[in-house]
Amino acid sequence: MKIAIIGTKGIPANYGGFETFAFKLAKHLSNSSHEITVVNEKDNHAITFDFPVQIVYSKYKKSKNPLLFYKHSLNLVSKSHDVVLVCGVGGAAFYLWNRGNAIIVTNVDGLEHLRRKYTFLQRKFVFGLQKLAASFSDYLVADSLEVEKYWSKRFNAIENKLTAIAYGADLPMEFDDSILGTYKLEKNHYYLVVARLVPENNLLMIIESFANYKGNKKLVVVGDISDNPFAKSISSIVNDKIVFVGSVYKKNKLDSLRINSFAYIHGHSVGGTNPALLEAMICKCACICHDNVFNREVTSNKQIYFNSAEYLLNLIIELESSNELTTTLSISAFERVTENYSWSKIAGQYEELFSNLILSKRR
């Protein structure tokens, strides 16, 4: 099969979840003898990879001209590939005119229209794109069963055009513990948050909890503190127990922060299978998660959950008083990811989907 992946900033994965997704999928599918193309945004220059992949470049940057980026990406690949996997719904406005002969599969990226980082008009616009994606994609992929249910009900996505395939995670192979010294951290003496600093990730609730925390551990927050006004406002909060370290892109450093933490706090409330949560779980972190259907699905109801600053503080106190609970959560998190969310398994599900779609088209 000739498969193109568009809609991410490109590979290598220096930015976020969708870029890691594109990289891992390209690697696994190319190793299965498929021809893989990834569209990178303007100025995101690729390195030499240890697997066969073709990189082509858009004339646009996704962050500056997202719709033009999607439109041009479709132009680059839709006439020369069997399948185009579109990450996000931004390309849906152009599916009727830019699809060529390719099968268009849209990874819907959760419930973007509910994100509070967008203005009212932006949320309405994203909602419109989601409706177009539901109508004009050949197939839709949600990254969790709960997101699949939502799309089926909210957007009338046809059942035989929609399936759930999760995100993945691999065992960390390298660590760089020097980052602990950089921020004067000690093993098991801090809680960790890795997130975009936006309202729907409940950073304010987490920080409010630590304002009343009387223990001796710190809260370490990894995320771009200059990303938006909300990020700037919460990162200016003065508290000797809270450390904002900014963005950390080196995976070996980030995995060291994870594996040396006492526990991971996951405040995400919008979306499906969140990459940051999987990465924490595969690093054997005990996880304290915001209480919603998405986080409970990923963790199989085997971690602990909060819905207020007060309740989060109670969970922290409970966790610090029970080594047995911490160990149980750590083991459950690791087993859940390794059994259900490996990248090889996820890539295999995409390969099967693409093959079935091509066979159906030929009949």
> Roughly what percent helix?
40-55%
Strand content: 15-25%
Number of strands: 13
Q: What topology, given as strand order, has the largest sheet? A: 3-2-1-4-5-6-7
SSE string, helices as H and strands as E:
EHEEHEEHEHEHEHEHEHEHEHEHHH
Q: Which of globular, elongated, flat, extended, rod-shaped describes the shape?
A: globular
Structure description:
This protein has 363 residues and is of the alpha/beta class. It has helices spanning 17-30, 66-77, 120-136, 145-154, 178-182, 203-211, 229-235, 251-259, 275-282, 293-299, 309-320, 323-340, 343-362; strands at 2-6, 35-40, 54-57, 83-87, 103-107, 139-142, 162-164, 190-194, 218-222, 242-246, 263-266, 287-290, 304-306. Strands 3-2-1-4-5-6-7 form a seven-stranded parallel β-sheet, sandwiched between helices. It has a six-stranded parallel β-sheet with strand order 10-9-8-11-12-13, with helices on both faces. Strand 8, helix 6 (203-211) and strand 9 form a beta-alpha-beta unit. Helix 1 (17-30) crosses helix 13 (343-362) and helix 9 packs across helix 12 (323-340). The longest helix is centred in the last third of the chain and has 20 residues, at 343-362. The protein is globular. 46% of the residues are buried. The model has no long low-confidence stretch (mean pLDDT 91).
Task: Describe the structure in brief.
This protein is an alpha/beta fold and 363 residues long.
What are the salient characteristics of this protein?
363 residues, alpha/beta, 6-stranded parallel β-sheet, 7-stranded parallel β-sheet, 13 helices
